[in-house]
Design a protein that fits this description.
The chain has about 575 residues and is of the alpha/beta class. It contains 13 helices and 27 strands. It has helices at about 10-20, 45-60, 80-90, 105-120, 130-135, 155-165, 215-225, 240-250, 275-285, 295-305, 305-315, 330-340, 555-570, and strands spanning about 30-35, 65-70, 100, 125, 175-180, 195, 210-215, 230-235, 260, 265, 325, 345, 350, 350-355, 365-370, 380-385, 390-395, 415, 420-430, 435-445, 460, 465, 470-480, 505-515, 525-530, 530-535, 545-555. The strands form 7 sheets. It has a 7-stranded mixed beta sheet with strand order 12-25-26-27-23-24-13. Strands 21-18-19-20-14-17-22 form a 7-stranded mixed beta sheet, with no helix packed on it. A 4-stranded antiparallel beta sheet has the order 4-5-6-7. A hairpin with a 6-residue loop joins strand 19 (about 420-430) and strand 20. Helix 12 crosses helix 13 (about 555-570). The longest helix has 16 residues, at about 45-60. The structure holds adenosine-5'-triphosphate and magnesium ion. Adenosine-5'-triphosphate binds near residues 36, 45, 48 and 265. Adenosine-5'-triphosphate binds near residues 37 and 48.
């Protein structure tokens, strides 16, 4: 993390903040906020904003960051989202301390500000319906035209607005609008709405209100009320900035935060809008918001992502002004890097093939030492149990091996990880299907621990579990949720749903894992040696029926992407 006194600011936002602090703007205060709308669960895009707002505040002495729920649309919001958002922010490692706010706390103040704008002749009650308002607004190339209600007297506006508040009108009958300029080149400045009638109870204010303030009116004022100095938001709000400033200026408000826009996070092979994520959940394309294929923080967590890996990812992508799509491989790289360091190694067989060691005593069981991490001795060792009947992975055997296949094949010797050198001496096939159902092998007792005492060469080491000393497990292999890197690119008449990857989840029900996983706690992460990183599923796994989610494969596709990039840059 970059600290302002030790190095150059790492991005344009930190450059602005550093300069503001240097010149003692805002009396040397730094206040940011993360302002989620509680209408869905947080996704990795929100993590970028959390990391930026909380991160920046923590880097500067005295900086603070508020958590504010932007709860102005009760028809879509729910208290369950409030709770999950709080949980997710904490999980990511950030803390708002006592600075938890709700825009709805300001409803009375906002109402008073609206009345003030009416009194100043800067707002009016419009009685056009939604369709008419749209028609009057004009287009990008044509100016709008004034509503016939635009010149209502201040008294009439005040009276109507009061009656709107009292719930005397139906939804859509009136709106309170600013009086700016219907010919403004920026459409957002063509008398945008400040309040609309909504006869919906609110999760915090109950049925006190029949009108609710619009985002653009609420946001700047909430920022100002909380003493926010830098209001960091995504690029789509750039065209709203003049309105942000207009409201504060017209009301003559002293604390005028500076809105600064940065690029949203987009990631390949997924979608990042709550509307789309809602659709996937509603249609049942995924099992819920916490489906491990979802880009939500709950989904990523269940998948096995660590908070640290997500913070590292956010740090890597940085903050810029230009929209771009980040390669999913970079997110995967971040979690792989973390798990590579910290996840204990264990052995698991995903597609079991029985293997009998013919010269191993029937009832003998041996305890062998296995390292929990190849490069980190502090992680210690564990005992694994070896016996006459084992399982190995089907992929590790070929009856007629292709070139360069050094694993198990008749007549060849391989190493069983931490155990012995074995040689395949026979194959048992199902009489009807011809399928291989069992391998017959012999072992060399002089090679205990996998050593090769006479220095004879063994080209491959494979993993295994003991048949009786292993546990059954369900293993869920995840792939990209979408089959195309940009799911939003669709043929006409279709939507992003058509790009779903039909093979995004593959469930293996016959896997076997080593006995040490008997008491594996949900959420614990492991590397299944030679396979991938896995996490005990937090929803479906139980002591009697273990379920593992594949977090990320071992192979680093990001390294490959980078190689290709550097190669093409070298040209
Ligand atoms: P969505 O479009 O997914 O519904 P939103 O912007 O409506 O997202 P909010 O709850 O209003 O969601 O967002 C809270 C904060 O998170 C806002 O400041 C918003 O700009 C930021 N944010 C949302 N999505 C992203 C993203 N993809 N990248 C960076 N910041 C984001
Ligand atoms: Mg929003």
């Amino acid at each position: 993390m970059t600290y302002p006194d030790s190095s150059q600011p790492s991005d344009f936002i930190r450059a602005i903040i550093s300069e503001d602090l240097r010149t003692n703007k805002n009396d040397g205060r730094l206040v940011t906020r993360f302002p989620p709308e509680p209408n869905g669960y947080l996704h990795i895009g929100h993590a970028k904003s959390i990391f930026l707002n909380f991160g920046v505040a923590s880097e500067y002495k005295g900086g603070i960051c508020n958590l504010r729920f932007d709860d102005t649309n009760p028809s879509k919001e729910d208290v369950k989202y409030v709770e999950s958002i709080k949980e997710d922010v904490r999980w990511l490692g950030f803390d708002w301390n006592d600075r938890l706010f709700y825009a709805s706390d300001y409803f009375d103040t906002l109402y008073d500000y609206a009345v003030e704008l009416i009194k100043k002749g800067k707002a009016y009650v419009d009685s056009l319906n939604a369709e008419e308002i749209r028609a009057y607004r004009g287009t990008l190339t044509e100016p709008g035209k004034n509503s016939p209600w635009r010149d209502r007297s201040v008294e009439e506006n005040l009276k109507l607005f009061e009656r709107m508040r009292a719930g005397e009108f139906d939804e859509g009958a009136h709106v309170l609008r600013t009086k700016i300029d219907m010919a403004a080149p920026n459409i957002n400045m063509r008398d945008p709405a400040l309040y609309r009638i909504l006869k919906v109870p609110h999760h915090r204010t109950g049925d006190k209100w029949h009108i609710y303030p619009m985002y653009d009116f609420t946001h700047c004022l909430s920022d100002s009320i909380e003493g926010v100095t830098h209001s960091l938001c995504t690029l789509e709000f750039q065209d709203h900035r003049p309105l942000y400033d207009w409201v504060l200026d017209e009301l003559g408000i002293q604390n005028h935060p500076q809105q600064i826009e940065f690029a949203r996070l987009n990631i390949s092979y997924t979608v990042m809008s709550k509307r789309m994520l809602h659709k996937l959940v509603d249609r049942g394309d995924v099992s819920g918001w916490n489906d491990p294929r979802m880009p939500t923080l709950q989904g990523l967590r269940r998948r096995g992502y660590t908070a640290k890996s997500i913070r590292n990812f956010c740090n890597r992508i940085g903050v810029a002004k230009r929209d771009a799509v980040v390669d999913m491989a970079l997110l995967e790289h971040s979690v792989r890097e973390d798990l590579n360091q910290h996840a204990p190694r264990v052995m698991a067989v995903l597609h079991p093939l029985r293997l009998i060691i013919e010269n191993y005593p029937e009832n003998q069981v041996e305890e062998l030492d296995a390292a929990n991490h190849p490069n980190d001795e502090t992680m210690g060792t564990r005992k694994i149990l070896f016996s006459r009947v084992l399982y190995v992975d089907q992929d590790d055997f070929r009856e007629t091996p292709p070139k360069k296949f050094y694993r198990l094949t008749p007549g060849h010797e391989v190493r069983l990880r931490y155990a012995y050198l074995i040689t395949c001496v026979g194959v048992v096939k199902d009489e009807q299907t011809g399928q291989i159902i069992e391998l017959r092998c012999t072992y060399d007792p002089a090679t205990r621990g996998g050593s090769s005492p006479d220095g004879r060469k063994v080209k491959a080491t494979i993993h295994w579990v003991s048949a009786t000393h292993s546990l059954p497990a369900e293993v869920r292999l995840y792939d990209h949720l979408f089959a195309t890197s940009n799911p939003n690119a669709v043929e006409s008449g279709k939507d992003f749903i058509s790009n779903l990857n039909p093979a995004s989840l593959k469930t293996l029900r016959d896997a076997r894992v080593e006995l040490s996983l008997k008491d594996a706690v949900p959420g614990t992460r492991y590397q299944f040696e030679r396979h991938a990183y896995f996490c005990v599923d937090q929803v479906d796994s139980s002591d009697d029926a273990l379920v593992f989610n594949r977090t990320v494969a071992l192979r680093d596709t990001w390294a490959k992407v980078q190689q290709i990039q550097t190669k093409s840059e070298d040209k």
